[in-house]
Design goal:
The protein is of the alpha+beta class. 36% of the residues lie in helices and 20% in strands. The chain contains 18 helices and 21 strands. Bound molecules: ligand BES and zinc ion.
Length: 614
């Protein structure tokens, strides 16, 4: 693939009109010939068979009038029959072939259709091993009474439960009719009704066009608590009250974001708290963010994650990266907006501490990465987008935007970002689209602030440019002084000024521990501050990694408990990695994994098995 170059200014001016096209390396679809405009799902949720069974009807826009073939993405789908739907609504059998399964991309489904067929209907079933679904037995839920199922479609798992064009360059509206066992609630990334009867019969509509990776479904024993006029929290009954309290600031977050970047365009913003096996921290499914319960710390200290998923309602769900190579447009902008929301709600101190910790951790991560992996705009041809996940699109992406903000000033940069969201609303774009807009609306209007070489370095060179703005936290000065004294042996663990430390101060302190802390250091810290067994997932995983490095085996039972029931990859994979470095640690890790495996999401199973060489 051609590396993406910054276009010459004259070319940019010409290109500010139409969006720039680029092939998505992670999809077999050919949307330049024909694209999906609308999806109608009709699905039965069968827990006994662990399958979704029914049909998907795709309404088509033919761009190439000579084209007859519709290519869809699938993975492990059982295709039953395919019909072309004529303008008169009549169905006729279509011929189709399913290509051999590629381990990363699945099987292309090629359907031959009459000229300009308005729609196609596919009868199909998902398989129990669908990579985008997790089926849980009653014993794996908190009440133990009912089974549970949820989807995680990003990056390319929608194709494992719906045949479609699984590329974010295509947007479509959808509706769904879903039947599930009575007593269970069905939620989708659509117009959920807070007061829906638990009658097992659900109808959804999503009137805004979205990319496939934002299709989502969850079915389980779910209670609901309203937290505002357009916000609610859904969770298992034992979790819902705690969750509603923790996330009570959601309406204030939406209001703060609207003030900065324009109206919230998705009507409701609900949060679904999933069982602990959810493989991510959060997923920005439109109208209903899916979230891990590990952010319920009791003191709102981890609700920045909700700010992050909410921010995607602008950066990602509204303005969407056209393929994963431009993921920084989604995650970098979102991480930037997230920090602004945290600043608006919880103050500059907290927001700055987040920047300092993230910047430092990004530098540590970069030190272990190959140069090609450090680029904001990447070449992911042939690469599984789940493997490409790193801090680069997130934290380097945000850093680039902070750099621009520092040069142009907030007074100019905030309205620019708002204008960008408005301009590209409901579009899928690549970095060159952003650059064209930037050139016309920022660079040309305020010349001489940023050079092309600087832009080029941020977007297309490894590492962090030396012109990156440096965040400084005064509160961390105090943490650093205490940490130095503790490590020098002149301050006892119990005398650390940590009584009122918030999460980020603990992260700063733990990150400053030596590569191999001594048993005395770890024991004294644990005795004084009870870090082992903490309910704060962010503190816990960093602390557990430190205990493994220092050989502090006293923490093992709690480590086993933590990685045994949590499926969030960010929290458990680093612990498995550290354990795997010694034969004794690896044996312990394998033992824990064998027990935990049935409760893990397929994505987490894959990541852990890779680390443990299973
Ligand atoms: N959209 C991402 C999750 C994702 C990214 C799933 C790529 C699959 C492929 C989500 O918004 C996210 O970034 N989640 C983070 C939250 C954190 C950065 C606050 C997570 O899950 O840790
Ligand atoms: Zn995100």
């Amino acid at each position: 693939m051609q590396p993406f170059r910054f276009l010459a200014a004259g070319v940019l001016a010409v290109l500010t009109g139409p969006l720039m096209a680029e092939t998505d390396p992670h999809s077999y679809a050919q949307p330049q010939m024909v694209s999906v405009r609308d999806l109608k799902l009709d699905l039965d949720v069968d827990f006994a068979k662990k399958e979704l069974a029914g049909s998907a009807e795709l309404a088509l826009d033919w761009h190439d009038k000579a084209a007859r073939t519709l290519v869809l993405d699938t993975r492990d789908l059982d295709i039953r029959s395919i019909e072309a739907i004529g303008a008169d609504g009549k169905a006729t059998k279509a011929t189709w072939t399913l290509a051999p399964r590629d381990p990363i991309f699945g099987s292309a489904l090629r359907i031959e259709l009459p000229s300009a067929a308005p729609a196609v209907r596919i009868a199909y079933r998902s398989k129990p091993e669908a990579s985008g679904l997790q089926w849980m037995t009653p014993e794996q839920t908190s009440s133990g009474k009912h089974p549970f199922m949820f989807s995680q479609s990003q990056a390319i798992h929608a194709r494992s439960w719906i045949p479609l064009q699984d590329t974010p360059s295509v947007r479509f509206t959808y509706s769904a009719h879903v039947k599930a066992p009575k007593a269970l609630r069905v939620l989708m990334s659509a117009d959920n009704a807070v007061k829906h009867a638990l009658d097992g019969d659900y109808r959804f509509t999503m009137k805004q066009a979205i990319p496939a990776y934002l299709l989502a479904i969850a079915v389980g024993e779910l209670d609901v608590r309203e937290t505002g006029p357009r916000t609610a929290v859904y969770a298992e009954p034992s979790v819902v009250a705690k969750a509603a309290k923790e996330f009570e600031d959601t309406e204030a977050m939406i209001a703060a974001t609207e003030k900065l970047y324009g109206p919230y365009r998705w009507d409701r913003y609900d949060i679904l708290v999933l069982p602990a096996s959810f493989p991510f921290g959060g997923m920005e499914n439109p109208r209903v963010t899916f979230a891990t319960p590990t952010i319920i710390a009791g003191d709102k200290s981890l609700v920045g994650l909700i700010a992050h998923e909410l921010a995607h309602s602008w950066s990602g769900n509204l303005v969407t990266n056209a393929n994963a190579q431009h993921m920084w447009l989604n995650e970098g902008f979102t991480t930037f907006v997230e920090n602004r929301i945290v600043e608006a709600l919880y103050g500059k101190d907290v927001a700055t501490m987040q920047l300092v910790v993230d910047d430092q951790e990004l530098r540590t991560e970069i030190a272990k990465m190959k140069p090609a992996e450090q680029l904001l705009v990447t070449d992911l041809e042939g690469i599984d987008p789940d493997e490409g996940l790193s801090g680069i699109p997130y934290d380097k992406g945000r850093w680039f935007l902070r750099f621009l903000e520092s040069r142009y000033g907030r007074d100019v940069f905030d309205p620019f970002v708002r204008g960008y969201f408005d301009h590209f609303a409901f579009k899928s774009i690549i970095t060159d689209d952003f650059l064209a807009y930037y050139d016309a609306n920022l660079a040309k209007k305020h010349p001489g602030k940023v050079t092309q070489a600087e832009l080029d370095e941020w977007l297309h060179k490894p590492g962090i440019p030396t012109n990156a703005p440096v965040a400084h936290s005064k509160r961390f000065d105090a943490v650093d002084a205490a940490s130095k004294a503790f490590l020098a042996g002149t301050l006892a663990a119990k005398d650390l000024p940590a009584k009122d430390w918030v999460t980020y101060e603990w992260l700063r302190f733990i990150n400053a521990l030596p590569a191999k802390p001594t048993l005395e250091q770890l024991g004294a810290l644990d005795d004084a501050w009870k870090l082992t067994g903490t309910g704060n997932g962010e503190v816990a995983f960093r602390w557990y990694v430190a205990t493994v490095r220092g050989g502090y085996v006293k923490a093992r039972p709690q480590i086993g408990e933590f990685i045994g029931h949590i499926g969030r990859r960010k929290l458990v994979v680093p612990i498995y990695e550290e354990l795997a470095k010694t034969s004794e640690g690896k044996a312990f890790a394998i033992e824990v994994y064998r027990k935990a495996k049935p409760g893990y999401h397929p994505l987490t199973q894959g990541s852990v098995e890779k680390v443990l060489g299973l």
